[in-house]
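Entry:
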Amino acid sequence: MNAKRKKTGNPEPPPTAEPFVRNLAEIAWQEYPGHFGGALSKALVRPETCGSRRIDFRISCYQPMAYVQEHVHRVQEQVYHVLEGEGMLTLDGKSVLLRKNDYVFVPPGVRHSFSNQGLGPLVFLVVTTPVEDDEVPV
């Protein structure tokens, strides 16, 4: 229900998200800033794709030698879950090999990067919250 609200000086709440079902093939691959060499992602759930307010959910496919450069999040938490292939994850300078069915939680403040050092594509899910790293911590 979208009734008009009286202007009270308070900002309008974000639009209500609607449930949906989609297929991965409907979403375009993108190479986001800081990603190189064929490090592609599909933004499946984000504010601009479906109205989510707190979740950034992507599937990523990195070709051999592709990577995301080392970076750190101020407030964002991330989960990576490997579906196929193998990749080298760095967490505060320590390297860890991730393979199919491995997953990792990366809390705010941990420097990290991920690269495909394998022979075939590295396919993994990424969940990030909050959506932007400039939000005030909860």
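The domain at 58-77+85-125 is CATH 2.60.120.10 (Jelly Rolls).
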